[in-house]
Structures are given as C-alpha cells and as structure tokens.
Design a protein that fits this description.
The protein has helices at residues 3-12, 25-36, 65-69, 73-89, 106-121, 136-142, 164-177, 227-234, 303-313, 372-387, 420-430, 446-455, 461-468, 471-474, 476-494, 498-513, and strands at 16-21, 41-44, 60-61, 94-103, 132-134, 153-162, 181-183, 186-194, 197-205, 211-221, 242-253, 262-265, 274-279, 282-286, 290-291, 326-337, 352-356, 362-366. With 519 residues, it is of the alpha+beta class. It has 3 domains: 3-53 and 165-241 and 350-387, FAD/NAD(P)-binding domain; 93-162 and 243-346, 2-Layer Sandwich (D-Amino Acid Oxidase, Chain A, domain 2), CATH 3.30.9.10; 415-513, Orthogonal Bundle (Helicase, Ruva Protein, domain 3). Strands 3, 4, 5, 6, 11, 12, 13, 14, 15 and 16 form a 10-stranded mixed β-sheet that branches. Strands 1, 2, 7, 8, 9, 10, 17 and 18 form an 8-stranded mixed β-sheet that branches. The chain is globular and about 70 Å long. It starts with a helix and ends in a 6-residue tail after the last helix.
C-alpha cells in the first residue's frame, strides 16, 4: 500500500462508483465492503487513517454490557454477532479477553451474575466463554490488585479485545487488495454536484497542495464527529445533527493491575461502567462521557474527567494509582446523534444512523468499532440503491482481513502484524541497524518504521509513533524520546532533508506533550 501509486490512480480513473469521505472505522468498513463487491471504490481521509476517534477506543470488541442494562437488546445482539465475526476475520489483531467484575455485597454478585449470563447467552453460537460466579478468593487470584475490603466475590465473563489503529490500517490494506483506492492526507473541501445531485467531490492533497475534481456515481459521508461539516458542504441550510461526547483513558504500568484479566466497574458516579484493560503490556483505564461543544482534531482530557477516573478506579484497587503513575492520557470523541430533549450524552443511543440528503449524499454516523462491518455494509447498500448500481451481495462476513493468520505466539512483539510479521523480520535482516530497538523500554524495532513508510502509508512521525506502532498511547514521554530517531529513519528512507526532520520532531513533541499528565 503505497501513496504514490494511489495518487496516480486519481489521474487515470475518470469516474468512481463510490467515493467515501472519512478514513476511520466506518469509512474503512464501507470501503472494504464496496471494494470486495467489485465496485470502483475511492476512500479519502483528511489526515491519517484512524487519526481521530477510531484510534482512541477502549480497545474492546464487545456487545456493550451497559446497553443491555439500558434495554437496548437490538444493539447488544447486533454487536455480539459482529464481535464473533471480527474475532474470526482478524485473529492476529483480536483476542478473547477474560473480565472480572468484583462485588462488595452478596446480592451484587448474583444480580450482575444473572445479567452477564444473559449477555453470554445472547451471543449464541458465537459465544466465546462461560460466565461464572466466583468467590472472593478466586477473584483475588485472577486480579490481585482488586481491593480486599468487604469483597464478597464477583463474576468472570468474556469479551473481545483488539488494536484499533492497527485494524484500521489492515482494513485500508484489505481495500487495496480488493482493488480499491485509499488516500490519507486528502481533504475533501466540497461536494461536486450535477443537476443538484451529489456526483463526486473536490479534494486537495494536503502534502502537495494539488487539487482534484473527482467524479463518482454516489458519495458516502463517514466522517464521524465531523459529519456536520460535510452535510453543510452538501447543503448550507443543514442543521447540526451531531452531539460530540468525549471519553478519556489513562494508561499505567501493568504492575498496578497484574494478571491477564481485565476488570469492569459496574457503576460509577455518573452511572457508566469503567474498565481496566491489559493492552500491549500496559493497562488502559477508562472511559468518561462528557458533552463537548466543539469537535477538535486533538481533543484534550479535562481536569474533571481525570479526577473522575482516579476517584472511581481507586475505590476498587488496592494498588492506588496517582497522577505520577500515568504514562499517557488520551481523549476521543463519540459522534452521537442528537435526540430531541436529551442533553446528557451518556443517555444518547449508540446505534448508528443513516441519512440520505436531497442531493443523494449518503451519511452514516454513530455506532461503534465493534459494528463497523455491518455499518459499512448498510451504507453501501443504500448507496447502491441511490446510484442504481448493479446489486452484488456483500462478502465481508467471511472476508479475511489483511494480515490474517491464526494466532500462534502472542509473545512475539510482531504478532499483531499477522502474516506481515515474517516480511518485517526479513526486512530487519537487510540492515543490522534496523534490528535495534527504537526505545529501550519497548520491543519495537527500527525495521517497523521502515515497514510503515514502505507499506503502510506512514507520512509523518506521528503516523508511526501513534498508529503504526502505539508508543504515544502507551508512554508519551518515551514516544517523545523516540521521535528524533524515527524522523531520521523516515528521512533516510524518503529522501527528506534535515529541516523536515526538525519540523517533524517539533510538531510531534508539541502534540505528545498533550498526552502527558502534569503532576
């Protein structure tokens, strides 16, 4: 997957069947669906793939226990089915994650136990583990950091876990393998019209400044929290439909939460659930649900959100986490669709919404990572109907995602590359220096930077350290320390000069400082 080749296609293709705006989970899901059906597909992303919300998730492939408590049975059933499909189609990026839910009153153990047993049964043939009610002794064996005081026992249940940004990249690669075209750093600045109908877009290459007029039979708007921007390009009288909600996560060393089991806190101050999830040898704790007035490209955690997580998680942990223990803090925005009369975003539905404008622009928004495939399929189905394109059945339910390989060795630091891991090891053998670690605290090697540039369309230091490898999200200070060498390797590979390196390091450092939690 090389950007130069993708750009070249814009000059040779006179008309696309489908153009998709947005390179997050939903847009990539739609592009995968369209390209694998054989339609001429083009996806355009303003920044990098999964730059926004889609790289800032809690890293769970789940049905949503909270949605079950809210009575949204349809969403839970749909998500549990999609969870099973994703675990099957991307085993290199996903795994079954055991969870414990500690209880501190005898009735809680049975109340939550019954609910979680129903949750497990709802997944039917795609069930991934048996829910059990456990004694306090067993809970502490699984999760030694859980607070002992008045612990009456708990529940063991199972959900899925994944690497969100890596899945986004592998979906982009899958689109290309299926004959589609994907481009990052390509900003759509207007919707192209013919006789009042949406028939393509106008876009600018953010790296060169070149502008393109791109024709298509239909356009899909999959821009998440920026949905309203595209709707208003299409119709400047369109009212805003998105109510952004912010969720933050804190990342700490695994010593504060040892073991392989994740933890769910069933009820917090605002009625949400809170998770502590092992991920890449760290632990992610989150999340919050805070209404925000404006959708930002780089949202920042608010003081009250940080205090909320400390206050709630430390009630359940004997280890006691402080600000000094946090390696990184990151924030993401949910594209919740407004509900008349509802101001609390925590109560807004997580179902996805499809809107077709007067011009025929198809907009899909809302939803969650777990249901990305179904969302993409439904968006494409609507687009095909509007464009009167030949109907071909979706094949993504059984389509193996790029890198597919049955998990053999989870201890291999390259395991989440799947089948590509072998190629990266070959690449490392080309140059002894590329076998060296990028930072002494992480297993990432320099060959992964080269691989990201050559095969994963990494254009900036941020692309590499944030999404090709996940160092920024795991330890922001270490990522800042790795930035100069990352820039040097990228410059050497692409022929960039010293000024480019300095600018990249400065830009990344400024961004990464926002992921540090001041003491």
């Amino acid at each position: 997957m090389q950007r130069g080749e993708m750009i070249g296609r814009l000059d040779t293709e006179t008309e696309w069947d489908i153009i998709i705006i947005g390179g997050g989970a939903t847009g990539l899901g739609a592009a995968t669906d369209a390209a694998s059906r054989g339609y001429k597909t083009l996806l355009l992303e303003r920044f990098d793939f999964a730059k926004g919300t889609s790289s800032r998730a809690t890293k769970l492939v789940h049905g949503g226990v909270r949605y079950l408590a809210q009575g949204n049975i349809k969403l839970v059933m749909e998500a549990l089915r999609e969870r099973g499909i994703l675990l099957r189609n991307a085993p290199h990026l996903t795994r079954i994650q055991p969870f414990i839910l500690p209880s501190y009153a005898w009735w809680q153990k049975w109340f939550y136990g019954i609910g979680l047993k129903i949750y497990g049964l709802m997944s039917g043939k795609l069930n991934i583990g048996k829910t059990r009610v456990l004694s306090s002794k067993t809970i502490l064996q699984y999760s030694p950091a859980v607070s002992h005081t008045k612990l009456s026992g708990g529940i063991l249940y199972y959900d899925g876990q994944f690497d969100d940004a890596r899945l986004a990249l592998n979906l982009a690669q899958t689109v290309v393998e299926q004959g589609g075209t994907v481009l990052n750093y390509m900003e759509v600045f207007d919707v192209r019209k013919e006789n009042g109908k949406s028939k393509g877009v106008y876009a600018e290459d953010m790296l060169t400044g070149k502008e393109y007029e791109l024709k298509s039979k239909v356009v899909i708007n999959a821009t998440g929290v920026f949905t309203d921007d595209v709707l208003q390009m299409d119709d400047n009288m369109q009212h805003n439909i998105i109510s952004p909600s912010q969720g933050i996560h804190l990342v700490v060393d695994k010593k504060f939460f040892p073991g392989d089991h994740a933890m769910m806190i069933p009820k917090t101050d605002d009625g949400r659930v809170l998770f502590a999830v092992p991920w890449h040898d760290k632990v992610i704790i989150g999340t919050t649900d805070t209404p925000v007035a404006e959708a930002l490209f780089e949202p920042r955690a608010l003081k009250e959100e940080i205090e909320f997580i400390f206050r709630n998680v430390n009630r359940y942990l004997s280890s006691g986490i402080t600000r000094a223990d946090v390696k990184a803090v990151f924030a993401g925005l949910r594209p919740l669709v407004k509900v008349p009369g509802q101001k609390k975003t925590a109560l807004m539905p997580r179902d996805h919404t499809i809107i077709v404008s007067k011009s025929g622009l198809v907009t899909i928004t809302g939803g969650k990572w777990t249901t990305y495939r179904k969302m993409g399929k439904e968006a494409v189905d609507n687009a095909l109907f509007l464009a009167k394109l030949e109907r071909r059945p979706s094949v993504t339910e059984s389509l193996r995602i790029h890198g597919w390989r049955q998990q053999e060795n989870g201890d291999d630091p390259l395991h989440y590359y799947g089948a590509d891991a072998t190629e990266i090891k070959k690449l490392a053998n080309e140059n002894a220096a590329w076998k060296e670690q990028l930072h002494p605290a992480f297993p990432y090697v320099k060959a992964q930077v080269i691989w990201g540039v050559r095969n994963e369309m990494a254009m900036t230091v941020e692309d590499v350290l944030s999404r090709r490898i996940r160092m920024l999200f795991l330890d922001a200070r270490a990522a800042i320390q790795a930035a100069p060498e990352t820039a040097r390797l990228m410059a050497e590979e692409t022929g960039k000069d010293e000024n480019w390196q300095q600018e990249q390091v400065q830009n990344f450092t400024t961004l990464a400082e926002g992921y540090l939690l001041g003491i």
